[in-house]
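Reading a protein record of the kind used here takes only a little practice. Think of the row as the fold of the chain written in a discrete alphabet. A record is reproduced here so that you can trace the correspondence yourselves:
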Amino acid sequence: MRFFRGSSNQTSEPATPQKQSRRSSGVGEISRVLNSQEGLCILDVGATSAANIRYFTDNGHKNYSEDLLRSSLEPALRMQDSVGNSALDSKKFLDENLVYQNGQFDVVLLWNLPDYMEESLVKPTIDRLWSVMKPGGLLLAFFHTRDAGPDSVCYRYHVTGTDMLDMQPIKLAAPGRSASDKESPRLQRVFNNRHIENLFHDFASIKFFLARDNIREVLVVR
């Protein structure tokens, strides 16, 4: 697993970030399930997307949204560990987020969250998702490849078709900074395939799709 730390020079961006489009094999797989059944329960844990909410509800499914990356940056989650270093309280994080019934969701859209969330929260979050998913449910995640650099852009993903996404760059306020002082979240690490398989060890199966934009799409069955 390759970690990225430190600051980088930020180039100026337009006031309104431009969307880009990409084809997604993982979204295509999920769409086949959504189009063959009605009334499925979907959990979207990426940056809130009104387009996703509208897309899924218009197709007869229930949609729940939680912006977990934004929630993980709450100052109240920070504490000091046994040697006085700053750390995140994963128990408090899960007490306040992903509070659902066991086996509630048919589909979870994890997007790129593991690559941008602090390390201490990643495995507890995936373990909680395992609990709130139905057996046989699908989870879609995006992981950067080793060719990705530390300045890889963090996106909000909008489902626009059977296998198509719009991607919009996002900016968030880092811990300790003013809410108006926003920047692109920094890529925390790059997981290799073995690390990804370990993250989803308790799931029934895992399938990889390698895209051309230094992204591995991972489709996992609960």
Remarks:
- The mean pLDDT is 88.
- The two ends are 24 Å apart (CA to CA).
